[in-house]
Amino acid sequence: MIAAVPLKINKAIYHLGFWSLAYFFWVYIFRNNALVITHTITIQFCYLVFIAANYYFNSLYAMPKLLNRKKYVQFASAFLAMIIATAWLRVPVSYLVRKYLFGLYDIHYNVLNIFYESFINIFFWVFFFVAAKMMIERVRSQVYIEQIEKEKAANELNFLRAQFNPHFLFNSINSIYAHIDKSNKEARNMLLTFSDMLRYQLYECDVERIGMEQELNYIKNYIALQKSRIDERIQVSFTANNLNNNVKVPPLILITFIENAFKYVGFNEGKENRIEISLGYESGNLKFRIFNTKDNFITKELHSSGLGIANTKRRLELLYPGKYSLNIQDTDNAYTVSLTIFDI
Q1: Contact at 8 Å (CB) between 252 and 201?
Q2: pLDDT, tens only, 54-98
């Protein structure tokens, strides 16, 4: 907001400078030796007001609302109607200026001649300025289109370059898979699961919403990998109800909470250690809850900065403003997240 004020001021100064130069140009070009300079200045100033009024009418209304929307007949009608109106308005203005400012009393004041002269002059200059503005905007649009095309080409090139790394990565995973002893089924299955998760992140998550079944498959794969890593005495439960691809969610919107649970679950001797995850769809609402016991030996210094949780909260605010409920309870022994997204 602060930066917008100087921009408006600069724009106003630019317009004021332009019309001032046009005014002095007209005074110099159309000066009449039969009239004193004050007469010329006054006459040209009157024209300036009517021409400027026509220009801004076309610039701010007729062109964006009619011409740019291909309403050519309406634009032409509005263009001529405004010129006719200002030409007629100049007739009494011209009479009043001549009578009260210059002291000229014309018994036979020719209204039609004044109107015709005003119409021709206003039409010519308004047509000139509007045509010049259209040409400038066309050039700007062409430059903008060329910039967009260059950026598009650069983005496509970057995309093609980026495709090389995943392709190489998957080839490497396949090579590692082939070298794992066939008797080690657990390691081979883990690598296949990881490959499936990676493919999902790279190729399926580039959308605003994705089917819940696909997201659910990713969550299951992640849980399966983590269960093979943590202490087997930690109980992990996961339930999913009424979920199908008719339910659309932002990709990876829940995974940060799940990652956090596996990261801090730890293991405490003589105590119950568990992770409970539930996900369901009911009455148009998506309900997610995750609970994990915490390691008593984790100090505050070892805790993460919470950047992942903060980013997820921000995503929820942007994607579902006023349509979600998030409750996080962090105690010495447990961590609980309850999330409901309404009318999903």
Answers
A1: yes
A2: 988 998 898 888 888 888 999 999 999 999 998 888 888 877 776
Lateral strand order in the sheet of 334-341 = 235-241, 274-282, 285-293, 334-341, 324-330
Cβ atoms 261, 275 nearer than 8 A: yes
Indicate the SS3 state at residue 279: strand
CA distance 270 to 172: 43
Phi, psi at 275, each rounded to 5°: -130, 125
Q: Please indicate, yes or no, whether residues 335 and 205 belong to a single structural domain of this protein.
A: yes
120, part of any domain: yes
pLDDT 10s digits, 5-63: 455 667 778 777 777 777 677 666 655 544 444 444 455 556 778 888 898 899 889 88
The Cα 59–Cα 151 span in angstroms is: 30
Q: How many domains does the chain divide into?
A: 2
Band of the pLDDT at 257, cuts 50, 70, 90? very high
Q: Which of 218, 219, 236 is nearest to 227 (CA)?
A: 236
State how far the Cα of 220 lies from the Cα of 167, in Å rounded to an integer: 24
Residues 245, 248: Cα–Cα separation, whole Å: 7
- This prediction has a pTM of 0.52
Asked if residue 136 and residue 17 are part of one domain, the reply reads yes
| Contact in structure between 274 and 293 (CB atoms under 8 Å) | yes
Domain membership of residue 265 as a residue range: 198-341
325 and 265 share a domain? yes
Q: Strand ranges (DSSP E) for the chain?
A: 210-211, 235-241, 248-249, 274-282, 285-293, 324-330, 334-341
